[in-house]
Structure formats: C-alpha cells, structure tokens
Amino acid sequence: AVLGVLVVAGVAYGVTKLNREKEYSVVYMSTGEVYVGELCTFPNFTLKNGYILQVAKDAKDPAKSTFQLQPVSDALWAPKEMHLIKDNVIFYGPLMSNSKIAETLAAQKK
Fold it and tell me: Under DSSP, is residue 26 helix (H, G, I), strand (E, B) or coil?
C-alpha cells in the first residue's frame, strides 16, 4: 500500500513538472563551454532550444568583454537537442527571470 502511494505521488510530481512552462537553465561543462537552454535532467541530461554563451572583446573597448548568445541551431553541427554526459557537467541551474541572459532571450522571442 505504501509503495502504491509512493508510485502515484511520483507520477503526479513528474506530470506536474513536465506540464510546467519551460524555463531556461544554464549548464557549465568541464570543457569550459557554457550552454543555456531548456534542460531536462531525467532520465538523462538533454538540452533543447540551446544557446552557446561566448565571451568576446568589446569592439569599442578591447579591455572590456561582452557576451554573445549563439543559437546551437546556427552551429555547423546544429542538433535538434543535445544529450549531455552528466560526468562532464560541473553545475547547472535555472536562470533567474531578471538575469541579463533571460532578458536577452525574452527580447529575442518578441
């Protein structure tokens, strides 16, 4: 009986989590690459609608750096989704809605 309750609770949690509005997460890889996208961590790490975060020198002031978000879909290898190897992920987490990256992505969708 306890097992049945746990299974039902687990399924309800999973369905609720899948039905939530998709949010963007940041994923920092052991290679130093930083990805932003819709991250699913179960059953494995999968990133959809991803972007590569690139740091570039500011054109007006080379002493300063700026960031650029390059859609993974624009890459030569352009995958539909990326399957990430968990052992290569240093950290990941959801973006705050008021972060510069989240604001940039929201502006691009308009």
Answer: strand
